[in-house]
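Quick note —
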Amino acid sequence: MVRPGTVFEDPSERTEVLATPEETGDRYRIRVTVVPGGGPGIRGSGIHTHPGLVEIFQCVSGTMTARFGRDISQLDPGNRLEVPAGIVHGFKNAGDEPLVVDVDMVFTPPGPRPEADLMAIGVAIDGLAKDGKVNRRTGFPPILQFAVISEAHPEAMQFTGVAGLLMPSLAALGRLRGYRSTFPEYDE
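Predicted structure written out below.
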C-alpha cells in the first residue's frame, strides 16, 4: 500500500510520500513537484475542499499561487499556508521553474480513517498514468473516470462550483460506461 517512498507521477507533477499516519499518528507528509503552469488550479475544476483534512503547504522552491477561500496569494520559498478542513482551495505553479512544496495532510479529528484516505485517489490516478490513460498535459484521467474515483472518496475530496454540481451525474454516467473507482492491480 502507500508508505514512505511511494511516488505518484503524471505529466504535470510528482508526489512523494514522506510519512504516513502510521509514523506520525495523524497525517500524511508529501513532497509535490509541479511543472511550470501545472497544479490543481486556482479557478475552475481544480478548486476543491477536503472535509476531513487540514492541509499545510510549505513552499520549498519555486513560486506557488494559492487560492484559499476567496483570497489568492503567492507563496515563495519559506512561506507557509494552512488550509482548514472544508475551505475551498487550489494551487498552481506560477513560475518558470519547477515548484516544490511540502504538504502535511492532517486528519480531523486526528487519526487515520480509511474513508478519508486521499492517497487512494493518488494510487488510482498513478496507475492510470502508468497505463497512459491520463491527459499528458494535466495528468488527469478522462472526466468520467475521475468523477467515479472522486465520488468514491467524498471524505477526502469534494469539488465546488460547476464541477461540484456536475460530478454526481458524471460519476453515474462513468459507472454506466464501466469505469471503476479502485484499481487493486496498481496498489503495491
